[in-house]
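Page 37, continued from 36.
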């Protein structure tokens, strides 16, 4: 990949460029902020149940913070590329790296979770397992590659669909973002049938069959390296590493702070882990100790250390990215930036192990994951059998079920695969509350008119 060829302001929907006070990449950021898909993240679980008396992070606040970190990473790396590759860069490229790479990474970070369904990863699991459990009844209706999409449902691939797919009655190109921004969220740029554990860029998959042609346009326009054309597999785009690093930095640290505010993690445990990580990277630890000695409020002490930890991890991610930039351009780096650092820093390993034991396996988290799985599974089971029935076998109860599907998600003239994707669009786009309310109504738990 060449630094002059890995970005473009071309958009989905083939819209002509317009002259405005904002750049095309700033417009991406603004479009995401005002989109309904982004707004719905405010009621999608990050880790802990929502809502509560203590305000913890949801998917929206998480995405805003990731975007803030991503902007810093993108701006600094833009300066690095402009300085170290100046003899290779065109004038347009210099302008992009100095003034717009930060906007691209910020926009990509902002929308990196828009494809995630309600209830976090348990929502993803529910969608995938629905098809696995009903394989005998419905697998024959789909091609091998279509079936692979369904049994491996993945929020990253769904994000591309949410952002680029034309829904019924809506405009071409979905959100009509630039290919540069869309390429930056493609952590797993391959078809579902090509996913393979142990290979970073194929750990999951990055696009559904329905969006394959759009993804190929994105890949070609941004210079992504093709590894295979059948099935389609690409090397990661260079900007993906920065989006991933911003996400990894935030969720590793913010989940710990949330757990502390909820009383799941003690002040001593949280403070010690954060302080050890800061100490391992700080050249002025005395200043940190002096600052802590002046703060008596526990939450404020943790907030201060959280900020210092995030700053330390940003600096480390930048250092590793710079060191490996030629490998990143060549598509040969095979380990995430934070994972590279984790392998050499025991404290970050300890934070991860502690989080798994004390946070992600906490009863409140496990309960919401179990409940969420059942809600999402049952919603699919309410709609999919009816949507797949041929016209001569549809009964009145099928018609009643399908009346609950908004028109933009109904593809009457499409294939069975497209019809099912429409249902998945509806269900995966739901907020936690909406999914729970609809589940209670169709199950007869709540009966009566509500708006």
């Amino acid at each position: 990949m060449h630094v002059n060829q890995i970005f473009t302001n071309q958009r989905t929907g083939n819209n002509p460029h317009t002259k405005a006070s904002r750049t095309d990449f700033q417009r991406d950021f603004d479009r995401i902020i005002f989109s309904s898909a982004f707004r719905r993240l405010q009621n999608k679980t990050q880790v802990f149940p929502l809502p509560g008396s203590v305000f913890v992070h949801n998917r929206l606040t998480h995405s805003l913070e990731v975007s803030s970190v991503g902007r810093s990473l993108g701006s600094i790396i833009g300066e690095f590329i402009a300085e170290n590759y100046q003899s290779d860069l065109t004038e347009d490229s210099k302008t992009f790296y100095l003034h717009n790479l930060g906007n691209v990474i910020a926009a990509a970070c902002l929308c990196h979770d828009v494809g995630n369904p309600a209830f976090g990863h348990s929502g993803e699991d529910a969608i995938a397992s629905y098809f696995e459990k009903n394989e005998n009844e419905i697998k024959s209706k789909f091609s091998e590659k279509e079936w692979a999409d369904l049994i491996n449902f993945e929020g990253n691939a769904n994000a591309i669909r949410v952002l680029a797919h034309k829904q019924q009655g809506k405009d071409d190109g979905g959100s009509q973002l630039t290919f540069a921004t869309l390429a930056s969220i493609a952590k797993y740029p391959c078809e579902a049938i090509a996913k393979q554990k142990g290979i970073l860029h194929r750990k999951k998959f990055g696009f559904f069959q329905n969006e394959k042609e759009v993804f190929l346009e994105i890949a070609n326009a941004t210079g992504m390296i093709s590894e295979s054309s059948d099935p389609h597999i690409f090397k990661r785009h260079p900007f993906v590493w920065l989006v991933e690093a911003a996400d990894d930095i935030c969720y590793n640290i913010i989940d710990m702070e949330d757990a502390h505010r909820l009383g799941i993690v003690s002040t001593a445990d949280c403070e010690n882990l954060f302080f050890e990580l800061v100490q391992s990277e700080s050249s002025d630890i005395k200043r940190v100790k002096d600052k802590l000695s002046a703060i008596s409020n526990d939450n404020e002490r943790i907030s201060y250390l959280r900020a210092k930890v995030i700053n330390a991890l940003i600096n480390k991610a930048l250092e590793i990215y710079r060191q490996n930039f030629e490998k990143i351009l060549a598509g040969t780096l095979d380990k995430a930036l934070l994972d590279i650092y984790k392998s050499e820093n025991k404290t970050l390993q300890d934070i991860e192990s502690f989080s798994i034991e004390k946070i992600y396996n906490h009863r409140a988290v496990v309960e919401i994951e179990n409940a969420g799985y059942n809600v999402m599974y049952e919603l699919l089971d309410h709609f999919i059998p009816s949507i797949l029935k041929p016209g001569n076998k549809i009964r009145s109860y099928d018609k009643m079920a399908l009346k609950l599907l908004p028109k933009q998600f109904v593809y009457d003239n499409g294939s069975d695969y497209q019809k099912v994707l429409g249902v998945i669009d509806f269900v995966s786009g739901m907020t936690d509350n909406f999914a729970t309310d609809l589940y209670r109504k169709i199950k007869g738990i709540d009966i009566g008119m509500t708006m």
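The first helix runs from residue 24 to 33. Flag for discussion at group meeting. The longest strand covers residues 226-229.
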